[in-house]
Recover the amino acids of this structure.
């Protein structure tokens, strides 16, 4: 799933601000349970803390959880 921005009536693709490798280092996802969690400690959040809510902030950029999960599932499908 590609992120987009709106410019007038057009939706333009946007380059992600985080690499897939960095995202994989920071976040884990269990497709069977549908849970997303931090792999490392960040501020007050300890490693293995489940991410709840609709968005997650990574390196100062807020991402919609559904887009992160879609991205992770695409990577899993590409490996198989």
């Amino acid at each position: 799933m590609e992120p987009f921005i709106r410019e007038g009536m057009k939706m333009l693709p946007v380059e992600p601000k985080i690499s897939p490798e960095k995202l994989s280092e920071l976040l884990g996802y269990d497709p069977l349970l549908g849970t997303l969690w931090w792999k490392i400690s960040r501020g007050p959040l300890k490693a293995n803390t489940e991410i709840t809510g609709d968005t997650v902030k990574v390196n100062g950029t807020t991402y919609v959880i559904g887009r992160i999960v879609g991205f992770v599932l695409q990577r899993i499908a590409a490996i198989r």
